Amino acid sequence: MAMLGSVLHLSPMMLTTSTSRPTKATTSSPIKPLKHCKTIEELKMFHRSLTKQGLDNEFSAITKLVARSCELGTRESLNFARKVFDLSEENGESYGSCFMYNSLIRGYASSGLRNEALLLFLQMMFCGVSPDKYTFPFVLNACTKTRASRNGIQVHGLIVKMDYAKDMFVQNSLVHFYAECGELDCARKVFDKMSERNVVSWTSMICGYARRDLAKDAVDLFFEMRSSEDVKPNSVTMVCVISACAKLEDLEMGERVYAFICSSGIEVNDLMISALVDMYMKCNANDTAKRLFDQYDGARNLDLCNAMASNYVRQGLTKEAIGVLNVMMDSGVRPDRISLLSAISSCSLERNVLWGKSCHGYVLRNGLENWDNICNSLIDMYMKCGRQDSAFRIFDGMSNKTVVTWNSIVAGYIENGEVDAAWETFKTMPERNIVSWNTIIGGLVQASMFEEAIEVFQSMQSQDGVKADGVTMMSIASACGYLGALDLAKWIYYYIEKSGIQLEVRLGTTLVDMFSRCGDPESAMSIFNSLKNRDVSAWTVAIGAMAMAGKAKQAIELFNEMIKQGLKPDGIVFVGVLTACSHGGLVQQGKEIFNSMEKLHGVVPEDVHYGCMVDLLGRAGLLKEALHLIKNMPLEPNDVIWNSLLAACRGQGNVEMAAYAAERIQVMAPERTGSYILLSNVYASAGRWNDVAKVRLSMKEKGLRKPPGTSLVEIQGRTHEFTSGDESHPEMPKIEAMLYEINHLGHVPDLGNVLMDVDEQEKIFMLSRHSEKLAMAFGLISSKKGTTIRIVKNLRVCSDCHSFAKLASKVYNREIILRDNNRFHFIIQGKCSCNDFW
DNA sequence: ATAGGGTTAG
After folding, report:
1. Strand B within 7 Å of which CB atoms in A 765-784?
2. Is the separation of the CB atoms in A243 and A255 below 8 Å?
3. Is the CB of A139 under 7 A from strand B?
4. What is the torsion angle, in degrees rounded to the nearest 10, for the CA atoms of residue A258, residue A259, residue A265 and residue A268?
5. What nucleotide is nearest A273 when CA is compared to C1'?
6. How far apart are CA A327 and CA A324, in angstroms?
7. What tens digit of pLDDT does each residue of A192-209 get?
8. pLDDT band of A146, cuts 50, 70, 90
9. How remote is the C-alpha of A520 from its chain's centroid?
10. For this UniProt entry, which segments traverse the membrane (predicted)?
11. 3-state DSSP call for residue A710?
12. For A119, left (φ over 0), alpha (ψ -120 to 50), or beta?
């Protein structure tokens, strides 16, 4: 992208402004008074003049010099302050005063030198200098953000012992310290005990909640604050409250808060605008955010641009993110490391290593390569772009590898389909958090390794310190859906409720889909009905659930209800509704809905929708009409559409049209195995064995093989897999006896399902080894009487197995639920929900 | 003196 190139080609002028200050001191310049000293040179000069005047032991002068040096806050000035301080101690008469210690401790703490601050505090205690009420806030500040919160707790003990625990400023600092360490309960305890609170007390507590995942508590506390008359919120408070609203994605609350700010006369500063823009964008109100952005001349404001860019990235709008940063640069503002994080993320999402490299170049030229976040981001980008060598070069150079660094590597491997490498890394990495687990579990699901995903999830349970969250459960639920394991599904639902994982729409939708795929449409619908904020994809899944269960009418009702609630249907919903009509044989309704797509809803039918219509017409026996539709559709019919026609021909036994359709498919998609099988099916049913042989030969020539049929059956929470013709199951003799029993209860084999020209006995035998029959027989002998048997098959169910299942359901009084690659068969008392039509 | 938005991995 040309625009991003300008990241690369920033003029050297821009790179040297604003960060580096001119430090040149002219020897001729007069000594400035302390408060006007702005550079280390000026301070040194001041110190020299003190020495010259013999005042370098003069207590108040030295104290002031140290304080001023600390105020400047650079490493150099702090070192200088320390030198002067140490000298004054050596000179002996007076030990460093409490005030000097305070200055230095504050300086160290606020420039991140926390250890130095704490060591100096210890020295102070050791030398017998009593800390005062000013010391403790500085020391506590040094204790926050370190992993070792123990220090702060010890300091708290000291505070109590020295009787400073009732000082408001000290208490405020304690609240802040505990909140920063994530100990919100401790923070609140201190807060509640305070006899007097000022705006900082309230703000510290509110901010503590907002920064954790307790944004609701933050907002509640803000309202509590407003009802206590003596303290008024200020702009710092409001920034915290707005960020809490952003976290909650609560637009209504956010706007209420904004209105309050406007009416209360609280100063609106840049930080507040940034927070507001962030809030609007987190609530997906991009337009409002953009208006504010423009109103405050956002392009000239680094923070505003960063807020916009990071949110665009989060929304996947990478072009917009880069656009904002470019506009910002055009107005002369240099991107900082936060901007770079957004830029690099965009490259990563776009899988654009060229842009990524240009960002990397900018990072190197501007000395940003020591920021861990930047490195992690670059590693992620290179891994996602398939440049593992570049990723590892950065990785190897990092001294502070965190769990995020490792997670980026694992995710990168997953992205490139290297599940084994991902697993090896995952196993050996030094620390794992919930994201690590989610990455590997999600990766296994993506690779269709569903059982493995669930195993890993189970081993996660026994790990300390990790708790499954909504993301984990989405992966696990979708794995379970693929397996069609209802007992597992129920357990997953129970687990989510028990562990208090929030059932928001996305997770809820996954659960609806899971139950639907496990053949439990009732549970699916009851969860769907309980969901708040249902979006189009939630409705789509519910409609699909009804379609799969053969409940066409309910599917249409749901669709109408969705429209009534003002949601705009997309192409995917129509696939669901039309499929439902097709399975339910609702030809007229199907046609009406199809015709309404563009006219009423502005959704242009795509090839899948034509496929649905061909399917609908074909199943209803209207083969000619189906063919007519194909020939007159505005799009070029693809293999999927012809395959729908072919499948319909199989159902209707129309050999000629089947051959015609199959020919088309083989031109367009010669590797589509299913079409050969369907065609041979049609020929076999018609007894045209020569043609069956021809199809078989042409498959062989192309190196295609019929994928083996496999069926899963879940018995007492364990999934058993059967493959067609496989007799290796340990219970095979019992399974065989069961099959024999049913065959002799009056099952008439449907020999058209055997695609080989062998004698009748051989055909009957081959039929009896279909995977779904093996699974069914095993289910019958290994589950309790009266319980439902659930089978998941990878291919379409054969008609012989279908009638076999119907007979079994009646004789043994069992409900059999059979899911094939297309739909569900709920078989009760000899009847199937598909009305023998699939 | 004490409090502040935007921050990488799923």
Report:
1. none
2. no
3. no
4. 20
5. B5
6. 5
7. 999 999 999 999 999 999
8. low
9. 27
10. none
11. strand
12. alpha
User: Which distant-in-sequence residues (6+ apart) come within 8 Å of A74 by Cβ?
Assistant: A40, A111
Cβ of A510 near strand B (under 7 Å)? The reply is no
Instruction: Quickly give A114 CA vs B9 C1' distance in Å.
Output: 28
Return the amino acid letter for A704: L
Give me the CA A106–C1' B8 separation in Å, rounded: 30
Residues facing A712 on adjacent strands: A721, A792
The DSSP result for A647-692, as a single string, is HHHHHHT-HHHHHHHHHHHHHH-TT-HHHHHHHHHHHHHTT-HHHH
A7: pLDDT strictly greater than 50: no
The structure tokens listed for A739 are: 């099959």
CA A404 to C1' B1, whole Å? 36
Does the structural domain A606-706 have CATH classification 3.10.450?
Answer: no
- Distances in Å between the alpha carbon of A777 and those of A612, A739, A805? 34, 6, 10
Residue nearest B5 (alpha carbon to C1'): A275
Is the CB of A203 within 7 Å of strand B?
Answer: yes
Tokens representing A179 are 């909140």
Separation between Cα atoms, residue A145 and residue A142, nearest integer Å: 8
CB atoms within 10 A of CB A402: 16
User: Taking a C-beta distance cutoff of 8 angstroms, is the pair A77, A40 a contact?
Assistant: yes
Q: State which residues between 273 and 292 of chain A bring their CB within 7 Å of strand B.
A: 274-275, 278
Residue A34 DSSP code? G
Residue A344: what residue type?
I
* Nearest nucleotide over every DNA/RNA strand to the A238 CA, judged by C1': B4
Residues 152-191 of A with CB under 7 A from strand B: 167-170, 172-173, 176
pLDDT (tens digit, 9 = 90+) per residue, A244-261?
A: 999 999 999 999 999 999
Residues of chain A with CATH 1.25.40: 606-706
Burial A191-216 (b: 16+ CB within 10 A, else e): beebeebeebbbbbbbbbbbbeebbe
* Interatomic distance A630 CA / B8 C1' (Å): 50
Place of tokens 């708790």: A467
Nucleotide nearest to A468 (CA to C1'): B10
pTM of the model: 0.80
Q: Among A103, A156, A150, which Cα is nearest to A129's?
A: A103
Residue whose structure tokens are 């069609």: A484
Residue type, A245: C
For the ranges A432-441, A743-752, A801-810, which has the lowest average pLDDT?
A743-752
Lookup: nucleotide whose C1' is closest to A176 CA: B3
User: Where on strand B do bases come within 7 A of a protein Cβ?
Assistant: 1-10
Side chain identity, residue A556: I
pLDDT of residue A797: 86
**End-to-end Cα, chain A, rounded Å:** 51
For residue A639, the cross-strand partners are none
Beta-carbon contacts of A104 under 8 Å, excluding residues fewer than 6 positions away, are: A66, A70, A78, A81, A82, A85, A117, A120
Protein residue closest via CA to C1' of B6 = A307
Contacts 24+ apart (CB under 8 A), A196-201: A196/A168, A197/A168, A197/A231, A198/A168, A198/A172, A198/A231, A199/A231, A199/A232, A199/A233, A199/A234, A199/A236, A199/A237, A200/A172, A201/A168, A201/A171, A201/A172, A201/A175
Tokens 């000179």 belong to which residue? A91
CA distance A359 to A357: 5
Whether A435 sits with its Cβ under 7 A from any strand B atom: the answer reads yes
Sheet hosting strand A824-828, strand order edge to edge: A718-723, A710-715, A789-793, A816-819, A824-828, A831-832
